[in-house]
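User: Hey, quick favor. My workstation is busy. Could you predict this chain's structure for me?
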Amino acid sequence: MTVAPTPATSREPRLTGQTVVLIGGSAGIGLETAREARAEGADVVLVGRDAGRLERAAADVGARATAAFDAADPERLERFFAEQPGPVDHVLVTAGGPYYAPLAELDFAKARREADEHLWLPMHLARSATGRVRPGGTLLFMGGTGARRPRAGLALASAFTAAMPALVAGLALELAPIRINLIAAGFVDTPLSARLLGDGIEDRREQLRSTLPIGRVVGPRDVAALAVHVMANTALTGATYDIDGGQQLVE
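Assistant: No problem, here it is.
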């Protein structure tokens, strides 16, 4: 008996005709999400502080436009959204990085910058996006899971880690029907991670390969796939989505 091969199934791209803004879109998770969004039919706008790196990233993914500025500057952020030629469908913020220091060594200028990027930037973005992000669109923020367990030197990071889910849930109610969500990542193998760990990056990768339940290191493409899913699934709002390969289960 001959069995006919099963025909390959195809589906429509999930973001066709939509506009996705990537704040922090010139590298790492932001750039990989731009690639995923383009593959799903979206136009993408890349935002970052380094104009040269933005230009290279835009050429890589075929971005519709770029804008080079510091997203933690509320006036510039407001102007950026006011200048958009049409409605925006989704915004992902990956700008900024973690700052870890024990209290005795805390640099308060860096701590204030951390607050600007992780608390005030979402608030300013939420207000700037009102009337410019279409109903049912998404504001999607990045957080982390590593500081959920209190440890010496992580007091500041733990405070932001705890605050972000509450902030996102509250904004989801205030801005509805715009959807507000948070991705909380563990270690992700990005250029930023490599810069932070320096010569210790390969040891960290090997440690995670040998201990994580998934047996490999989480990469930007994993997070990008989740980000695009959250954008496309219109039932998701006010929630935090962990992506760490099971890291919280073993550390």
